[in-house]
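Forum: Protein Structure Q&A
Topic: Joint prediction for protein chains with partners

I've read a bunch of threads here and the consensus seems to be that you should model interacting components together rather than docking separate models afterwards. I'd like to see that in practice. Below is the full input, 1161 residues plus whatever partners are listed. Could one of the regulars post the assembled result?
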Amino acid sequence: MSESVITALPPVGMITVRGVLDEIGDAFTNVVGCPIPEQRLSTRSEVCGVLWMSPDELLILTDAASERGLADRLTGALAGQFATVVGIGDARVVFDISGPGADDVITSLAPVDLAALGETEVRRTRLAQIPAAFWREGGGYRLICFRSVAAYAETLLQNAAGTHPVTQRA
Amino acid sequence: MSFRLAKGGRRIDRSRYVRFTFDGQEYSGFQGDTLASALLANDQLLMGRSFKYHRPRSVVASGPEEPNALMGIGDGARFEPNRRATEQALHDGLIARSQNAWPSLSFDIGRINDLGARFLPAGFYYKTFMSPRPFWKHVFEPFIRRAAGLGEAPSKMDADRYEHRYAHVDTLVVGGGVAGLLAAKGAAASGERVMLVERSADVGGRALVDGGTIDGKPADIWVREVVRALDTAENIAVLRRCEGSGIYDHGYVLCSEDLTDHLPDKTGPRHRLWRVRATRVITATGTIERPLSFAGNDVPGVILASALRDYVKDFGVAIGDRTVIVTNNDDAYRTAEALLEAGLRIPAILDAREGADSALISKIKDMDVKVHLGRGIAKVLGRDRVKGVAVCLQAGEGAVLQEIACDAVAMSGGWSPVVHLWSHCGGKLTWDDDRAMFRPDPARAPTNGSGKPFVITAGSASGALTIAEVLEDAAKAVGASPPDCTSDPEAPILPVWMMPQGARAELRAKMWLDYQNDVKVSDVRLAAQEGFESVEHAKRYTTLGMATDQGKLSNVNGLAVLADRLDETIPQVGTTTFRPPYTPVTIGALAGEARGEIFQPLRRTPLHDWHDENGAFWEPVGQWRRPYCYLRDRETPDQAVSREVKTTRQSLGLLDASTLGKLLVSGPDAGAFLDMLYTNMMSSLKPGRCRYGLMCDENGFLIDDGVVARIDDQTWLCHTTTGGADRIHAWMEDWLQCEWWDWRVHVINLTEQFGQIAVVGPQARAVLERLGGMDLSAEALPFMAWADGTLAEVDVRVYRISFSGELSYELAVPANRTRQIWDALISAGESFDVTPYGTEALHVMRAEKGFIMIGDETDGTVIPQDLGLDWAISKKKGDYLGKRGQQRSEFQRPDRWKLVGLETVDGSVLEDGAYAIGEGKNANGQQIVEGRVTSTYYSPTLDRGIAMGLVAHGPDRMGDTLRFTRIGKAPIEARIASPVFYDPEGQKQNV
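Posted by a regular:
Agreed with the consensus. Here's the joint model:
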């Protein structure tokens, strides 16, 4: 397989926002700086990225240090509305997948048609046996998964990339 | 003898020798050989033994349909049984061994079965080994297994790596013959994303052997030009050594690609399993030649006519100097042509047809070959290899007209389209009388989610026979115009299902239908006679078409014999079911990356590494690993558990409770929602306080428990059991999305956001005070309260809850900081002999306190009332999940088994799951039981066995003695007691 580089990133700030997306739009954009993304897509502002997760759920990515402050400002802005804002950066891990073999790494683990993946699209899928999501970033991909399975995910990715093939223990 | 011809061999490179071993003996072949062609070149005609009679067998085919030449390839950690020698590419260092022969291939003692063959007809095992029944398992089956069977299972772990690859295409073309190439070219021309898979190393298919003229060019030149165009096009991928193995619903196709089997260098993945989603699948899978059923058609040297042509033209290998050709159609004359070109002799062509005439036949006759029309083979002469044939009239009973000496027999019984992939997903077949074949019925194609056909056949897979027909059909499949190509008309085929037509019983008993499974014409007729008239029943009774054959060679011949015996037509009898995969796919390829350390996901808590470095004796808990205990010095696990319990009760213990489910439930209707989910009242809980709660399913059975904390007016945090985290999350979402969709409640799973550490024991408060930052006094944080704050400068939420009966705090810490707090506790607790404890100490301490455990005290049939948890069931609430269920009469029965404590009279530990022995026997003659043990431990605190169990009328029988079963020992007595063995007043946790 052509070469690809798998890197686990340092902790990233993440905030889950649940609510009626049509209703929270203005207040949300005022705080976050970018509009609520359309179904399956993402938007970006200077301070964060916003990923559409489900019809009533968004995921904000920001740097770890900003997570608490941003979550508090959002909670304040959405006060009185039926909305829930929770920091969840510790629950997930982000990987960067780059290099010419990045597509092969993804398609050996996830049942995804990369040709159909838009520039700002977020693909919630599975990576072998675990849930994961990924999107395009700088010619490669960024992938998130749950923290408890981060070691599994990293080994999967390295194994698929051929950089750390898993051998059978005798 | 079989040998290498002086010249010829399209696929071999005579300048490159390849060395390999077969049954330990060294051989050499050429680069480009298959194992089968190389063995033939070395006069190793004998390649295997049949399954049942251990008859000597050689190749009968040259491709995937080969039933005989199955071999073990490789050795040690790279050994694989049952590989077809006809498809195993030769490479340096290849190790092959024969199968199903003992003590050796050339002298097989099992051949004795063959001498007794008339005593081993179809169904012999079923009839003979019926009784006495215990003999089946201990005597008959082990014996039969040794005598029968194909290759051995590998004994070592596989050294190779495998991978999966997902692909999405508009059109997937299976098969790279001229039909597949033309179809792929046509599909790609319209801009579609196209993938073409070809199971052999070369694309081009039979046209490369059989020739023809396409667009004015020789077929091989045409193929080369098309392949070059396809290989360079951006929107098409051509995969060689990749089989289309199975077609499933929704355009899902499994393809299996061989990456290193043909190479001496085994680095990298061995197989790649392609998991393709295709809008349209074109199966250009070709045809398979049928054998003819004559006596002795399995003797080594009898081979399909097309296969012999392949060996001569592709590999420059002949099976003998003199070949008798026997046929019922024109195609075998192409073999005659090939043999004559190679300088080999043809003593006779026996053509079953009377008066067959065509340009091709005339051409062969003009080359001085004797063609006997209306003739067939009465029997093959020779035992271990062909020595000659006895000729008879096809229309007769087998009276021998003459004997002809020869070394090989090339047979052709007609052609069967490879309809396997078409049929996998529901494509139907139609019987074509003129061509004597089942071919795909385009009107009844496999359909996709919109009810539209999504599989199309192309070329000979559709039933086309000549190259012109093949190209025309393939062009039609993609709506293109066919290239310029004509084929001479051929004389019609004569269906021949038995040779001679009126063969007597002794001849029928030597006519093989299924070589691999030793099924003969006589067996199928016997099956019909004994009432196994459905083709599926006849298959199972006789084993026709089982194992690797899967209907490739034996199918049509077998069901034609069945039809004849039943006086039915072939379409009335029908075919057996074609199931994927087309040829066996390795288990490794199916498993893909899932092996070794990534066999399955292993979930790690934020403290996993610390546990690993500090003697954790691991226990799998779902996909988590949790320390069962921590081993110090030379401790046994039992000793470690005792130490952990004692130190915790006396001073200070720490537990990694991070795996507990943590579900945030928030919204204006969250209180009402939780009142429905829990049996007790959660809406009345005050912010800052905690309450233990039970959850039941609609039937009233207890499904989960845990502590709920009220965070603010609209927000609760629900702890679930470790195994309940995802299940209860899904359960909540199920009710919110499907039943109460208008309730304004959000559930967010925070299980992995926080690590959770239980700080347990009389010194728990003291050690937390050493960390500093929060007032954790009994006044500031009483039992069943929680508070946010900082400890050792880390944000924490502290719950004052206890599952051990001791003074206990559970700290919820953001996962990235959990290790920091844990390290601080270990260091601050040093003077308290701080002792991390595992799941077993947790279990022991909760059992000492009589706390139930979901999955121990519950098993899906237990309601909270059985466990004496009536206090946790609200009488005030109008409804909760399970309330109605719990009102059913079964649950009101006074003799329901209810929770009690159990103490053995002698202080020993009861066996887990042991039953309390009641009086008498039930209607089935079984011992009546009146209770069972649900949890049982040695209590280090009390230095005796303690247990909990469910006992009929249990709580009313305090002090009674019951007898409990022990496996392999006499029953043991235990007294019914309170389940709370330790600190019944609860003073220790409330200080």
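Helices of chain A lie at 21-32, 67-77, 102-107, 150-161.
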